[in-house]
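re the bet — no i am not wrong, look at it urself. input seq straight from the record:
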Amino acid sequence: MDANIIVMLISLTLFLAYISGMLYTKTGVPDNIWLIGFGILFGPITRIFNFSALSELIPFVVLMALNLLMFEAGLNVDLKTFRESMRKSGYLGLITYIITIFVVGNALAYFMPQTFTLTEGFLFGAMIGGTSTSTVLSLLGCIGLNSNDLGECKLFLVLESIFTDSLSIVTTMTLLRILQMPGIPLSEGFKDIVFVLMVGSLVGFGIGVLWVQVLDFARNRPFNYIMTLAILFVCYFVGEQLGGPGAGALSGLVFGVTMTNYPLLARRFNLKENVRVERRRLRAFHEEITFLIKSFMFFFVGLQLNLSLPLFAVGLGIATLLGALRYLSVYVTSYFTELSEVEVKVARLEFSNGLTALVLAQLPYLVEGTGFFTDTGIYLDLIVPIVITTALFGALVGPLIYQDKIQILPEMEVESIDEGLKKE
C-alpha cells in the first residue's frame, strides 16, 4: 500500500474530525455521524479513495480500536462506584442485552434465512446489544435536567454503557469461537470459553499489577502513557497466545480495571498498597490517542460502506425494533430494581449504538476461514444505518420527546386540580 495514501488519510481524518466537532456544536448531530458521512462522500459516492486498496488496513485499525475500547472501559470502571451503583445499571444493561440478542437473532434468522443462521443472528444481536456513552452524554446535555437528576441519570446510564460495551465485546468474541467450532460438542465449547475468560483475566491482572509497580517507580517520568500503551498491546499478545482468540481483548479490559482500582485490589489480595498511579494523566493522554483512532474508525467505516437502499431500510427497521425492545426492557427492569420516574423516561429514550458495534462488525472479516459466515459484509452494512438512526434519535428526537412529556405533565396536574375544585 502507498504510504502517501495512509498519511493523507490520517491528515484528512484529523481535519474532518475537527470540522465534525464544529458541526456538532452548530447542529446537534453527533460528530461520529458527520465522520461516517464524510467517509461515504470520499468513498462510495466520489470514489476519491478506493476501499479495495485500503482493505489491508482493516486488521490494524480493528486491533487498535478493539484494544483501546477495552482498555478505556477498564480505566472507567471504578469498582467502588460500581459496587454501590451498579445494581440498576447492571439489571437494565443485562436485561436489554439478553432481550436484544434473543429477539434480533430470531428475527434475522426468520426473515433473512438466506443470510443469517440462528447463531449468526445471535452474533449480530450481540454486536448491537450495548449503548453508546457519547450519545448518553449528548441526550442528557439536551434535556435540561436539574443538577441532582442529571448526576443520577448520568451515572446510571454511563455505567450501563460501560458494562454493555464490555459485555458486547466478550459475548461477540465468544460467539465467534462457537461459529469456528461447529463440530465440537457444546459442553467442550463451554469449557473452552471458560478457559479463555480465566486466562484473559489472569493475564490482564498479572501484567496490570506488575506495571503499576513500574509506574510507581517511574513516577513523573515523561512518556509513561506511551509505555503503558505498549504494555497494553503486549498484554493483548500474551493473552491471545496463552488463551486463544478473545483472551487478548479481555486481558486489555482487566489490565485497565487493575490500574484504576489497584488500591482496592491490593487490600483484597494482600499486595503492596503504598503505590500511586497518576490515573488522571493516563486518562488525559489516553483521550488524545483514542480521539485519533475513533475518528479514523468512523471515517474508515464510511469509506467501505455498501450503499444499498434495501439494506438501509432493514437497518432502519432493526433500529425501530431496538427502540421497542428498550421500552420493554426498562419496564421489565422496574420489577427487579426501583427506578425513579426521571430514570425511566430517560432510559427509554437511550438505545443508541456507537463505535463498539462498528468495531465488532469488522471482526467477521478477520476470522480465519470466512466460510464460517454466510456473508461477512452484511454485519457492517446493517449496523451503520442502525448506528446513524439510533444516534440521531438519541441526540435530536429524544430530547424533544422528553421535553414534551415535561410540558404535558404540569398541564395534566393543573386540569386535575381544577376538576377537583369544581367538584367541591
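see?? The chain has one domain: 3-423. told u. also The two ends are 83 Å apart (CA to CA). so pay up
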